[in-house]
Amino acid sequence: MPDYAVLAVFIPTFFFVSITPGMCMTLAMTLGMSIGVRKTLWMMLGELVGVALVAIAAVLGVASIMLNYPQVFDLLKWVGGAYLVYIGINMWRAKGKMAVIDNAQVNTRRASLISQGFITAIANPKGWAFMISLLPPFINVDNPVGPQLGVLLGIIMITESVSMLAYASGGKSLRLFLSRGDNIRWMNRIAGSLMMLVGVWLALD
């Protein structure tokens, strides 16, 4: 499994990135308010499966490059680090508006809710770019990749679940909190700062 120093960096970074309002979190909150938390759990299930698939594909793909083309990976480290810094800067500059999701016609069937969450997770190109850039730095190819991926994936699943549940159950109170003052902007800035630090660490490691 990853060492404690790696986990000490990964856990807060992914937590603040996950809890920052985005499409999945806004979708969880909107569905929680419109159809209830219990039914929203089915959407969360689909989203978690989608996030897990994206994370596994990202790590295995980059790990393969690390093992077979170490020179390419050196370049990839710099590119990935620069991209994380770029994301961090954009999060700092974000105006703090929540994503708008139209759920006027919500299909409450379980299969539909699961597919909605799954598609939201895997059809987002920013999600793929984020996972490809963020996860591989925390994998040490000198050790078995499977156990490390399992631990990181477990952290991702727990963090995503807690974040979506908070948004789904928070409802109107959470929406009011996020719309008040610069609350979203400060959440973006905390997550953006962590992203920039990880980007610099990746490039210099």
UniProtKB/TrEMBL annotation:
The protein's topology relative to the membrane is: Multi-pass membrane protein
Primary residence: membrane
- Tell me which UniProt keywords the record has, alphabetically: Cell membrane, Membrane, Transmembrane, Transmembrane helix
Checking InterPro entries in the record gives: LeuE-type (IPR001123)
- UniProt KW GTP-binding keyword: no
Which compartments is it annotated to reside in?
A: Cell membrane
Which parts pass through the membrane?
A: 6-29, 41-69, 75-92, 113-139, 145-166, 186-204
Among Pfam families, the record links this protein to: LysE (PF01810)
- The entry's protein name is Threonine transporter RhtB
Q: What is the lineage of its organism?
A: Bacteria, Pseudomonadati, Pseudomonadota, Gammaproteobacteria, Alteromonadales
